[in-house]
Records
---
Amino acid sequence: MLNSYSAADKVLLAVDCIIFGFDNEGLKILLIKRDFEPEKGKWSLIGGFLKRDEVLDNAATRILNTYTGFQDIYMEQLYAYSEIDRDPVERTISVSYYALINIENHNEELIKNYHAQWFSIADAPKLIFDHDEMLEHAIRRLRYRTSIKPIGFELLPEKFTMRQLLELYEAILSKELDKRNFISKINSLEILIKLDEKDMQSSRKGSYLYTFNKEKYEEKLLNDFVLNL
Amino acid sequence: MLNSYSAADKVLLAVDCIIFGFDNEGLKILLIKRDFEPEKGKWSLIGGFLKRDEVLDNAATRILNTYTGFQDIYMEQLYAYSEIDRDPVERTISVSYYALINIENHNEELIKNYHAQWFSIADAPKLIFDHDEMLEHAIRRLRYRTSIKPIGFELLPEKFTMRQLLELYEAILSKELDKRNFISKINSLEILIKLDEKDMQSSRKGSYLYTFNKEKYEEKLLNDFVLNL
DNA sequence: AAAATTAAGTGTAAAAAATACATTAATAAA
DNA sequence: TTTATTAATGTATTTTTTACACTTAATTTT
């Protein structure tokens, strides 16, 4: 019967995480070298299995936390991958999530323990299974989402310069942006607070630091913005 | 161990379909009155379970075909829903798909057999489980996707008038559009063929019929268009 | 102490895109 | 032949986007 509930076709559900980070070298992803079969020794997204009494979102944050020690990280579900032989060991459907990490604060210890490593998007190694497809999909989603939601800030430190923000968007969109036009577009959103503080690392003059004004953003609009960069 | 493959946590995977149709009354969805427990007699999306050796996309098309007789339908995966008690009978994760149907050709027989019925989006009944959330999610996705991909045509007959296309976009976006601006924006995409034929149903003068020029669209660009309506 | 260096910060004019808007055309029915 | 109905069409205005270069502030070098 069409709609019968039956144990016959239960499957394993995995969660794989595309973990994005950003530093002065550009946009990065965190990968692990698998220390178990199959594909032991190959590079892989960070993943795990959904537990019986766990929601997918929780599985994603749990897995992220296990490998990186991070909590309260922005994550978004992407897509369910279900090719029959995508995992050669057993039929496994994987639901991908992407995460945005402020790379400055990552937990070195945990990452080392799991042989995890940050790679520039551009020169990431070939990944196992369908993980390359997941990565590509995640980048597309990230591009779209950052153009309508203020999630880019998740990749930056609490306080950041306009240059950092510009370079972040350049990395995400992988194209050059005009500095003046970028700044005026960002300013027109009116969601940043310009601090009195300056960052003195990058120049002699020093550049003003900004923070994301989450309260203002939230009270401002329920709708998305449109950021045509 | 973190990454062990284990049968312990296998789950049922369902697929639920948000089936959109369009006619002169507007945008519609196809719902069924459940004839089995739980929630027997309530309105529901059309759904079913993933089979062991089946890919999600295939499950979605199979389920759609079973209820409507349709084949070769545009479908897109939306999202995986995994709340613990979303289905009260058993832990079930559901992956939603939306489908775009040319409502003129639907298979009346099959739809009647399954107590299926088209509802205007505006006055759809309360749905079971988390199906209302799925529907809302699907409308959002449909809005976005039709603004960058030529999938609106899937909801129209092979030959259609500009007025039909206009009203389709108005229904999807649920806002009024200026006729002249709409037509010039559509024309600027250069993906329609204006036929010599006219549709005489709607007026004395008759209005030209168009078809989507799929070949031209495909040779034209690998990228998406941007349709700011 | 002056000169050179470096990145920060800032505004405007031109081009392109989006919008608002009203009349004529074709035909069938009365 | 008059009336009624929807189809078809273009332009001027406003808004948005783009392209573009010099001055400022502070440090380092000479």
---
Amino acid sequence: MHLYNTLSRTKEPFVALRPPHVGMYVCGPTVYGAPHLGHARPYVTFDVLNRYLRYLGYKVRYVRNITDVGHLVDDADEGEDKIARRARLEKKEPMELVQLYTLAFHKAMDLLGNQPPSIEPRASGHIPEQIEMIEGLIRKGFAYESNGSVYFDLEAYRLKYPYGVLSGRVVDELVAGAGNERRALAGQSEKRKPEDFALWKNAEPEHIMRWNSPWGQGFPGWHIECSAMGVKYLDAPFDIHGGGMDLLFPHHESEIAQTTACHNCAPCRYWVHNNMVTINGQKMGKSLDNFINLDDLFAGTHPLLSQAYDPLSIRFFILQAQYRSTLDFSDSALSASAKGYKRWVQGLKELLAYNPVKSEAHSVTHSHKRQGTRPGLEGLLNSTLFEAKAQTALNDDLNTPVLIALVYELLNEFQTVKSGKIVVSPADWDDLKTKVKVYVTDILGFDLSDEVSDTSLSSALEASMKLILDLRQQAKDSKNWAQSDLIRDALNEAGIKVMDDKEGSRWSLG
RNA sequence: GGUCGGGUGGCCGAGUGGCUAGGCAGAGCUCUGCAAAAGCUCCUACAGCGGUUCGAAUCCGCUCUCGACCUCCA
């Protein structure tokens, strides 16, 4: 498998450092607000990567943090903690807020079809580890205390290690900061150099979230949690570090500096970054008034949306683009994709439900021109070929859109089977079904089981629907169209669609 | 201003030197009491201008243009 490594800016063959184990760390959400569209893309992406690595036989430890402390807000807030700020506004305990949004996040992730990570460490639960790491950095001369805060000494670091390799940043230019006005950061006067970043922040008296430390009461800086927790659970260097492209600088650059300075080795081997989502071509941002929460997306309660979107159709939409391209969300793009998704899933369900007729010996092959060609199906219906192509797609930097397109093509070829033009043997068909299920459900994470999960309810519904449709059929047989249309319309209003075809009537929910 | 990444058919979105991805929309057709669904067929594009090459969406140069980041962010 090849993965694009931001560090080298090329696709590199993936080689695990300690096979069969793979350590993957992905920057998790800051739980100070409702989960939004920006959360959907990275976590769907890395969920598929996690699933695929497992499929390839790796034992993956997937660590994704919950940030519930310490992110500084901008100068207007004088270094006040984001979570503390929201807590005051909503008059809740900070941890109450954290709990609320953590649960909302988990629920959204579940709806999107994401498997939970192996470990989901909280920053607030790892204060001692962070303090320990900061102490180590001070001991080694890469950090200094100032006025109850601790800052990373970038100058000292740069004397020994290169800085800015990941993001392509040059420190002197950062400081010069040509062009736009630079934001005045809190505590700038305490720093030796403006480019130094906070490892620990002294808490003002009104700051709610605070912990004891060797430097007085305070809270950890933004970047240190990922370094401390990543090393704790995965050991540096681990295999993969993922996150959104927006985290490249300064967050990941700082992580590299911290871990390298502390442990004298890079945090990880591969840096994998997903690109951003845009809304109607524009960056999504709270200030731009185009922020879409996942709840609103799933319920259709957002002014920019014309309808509710099935969470898995959002997953489909996300996976229809390669993770390194920007992905533009618009109502029209979503509804186009949702339609395609519906057909895709329906076709797959039919494929999985299809049972080839057991027939004579020659059923396996069809129209092989030459004698001696190996038996088997042509095209994607041949499970070996399907798998080879599917794997090629994913091996190429997780090219999920190509895999999805491949399945569409397979469904197209399935038509020739349905129509009887090609006869398949039950054994071949079982092979194909197994492979398709692996790629579509195990790896891509879609659900091809039937919607109604409650079995007693399901069978009751099944039976009553059969009765109703039988009655309607009787009406149809006696050409009582008024009666049959009445039944269909009434069912339609109840949310049940009825479709007639040659074999009779079919129905589906929604 | 700096760094990085893009511009592909009506829309979304793959594709890194030759072999028309795929989806949605649109058109025609099949099926059909009507409808819906499904299926079949059609729609052959790569920002512009140069260059390299037998051959360029793909490589090189320039121009135009969009976006991300530059200490809140997924």
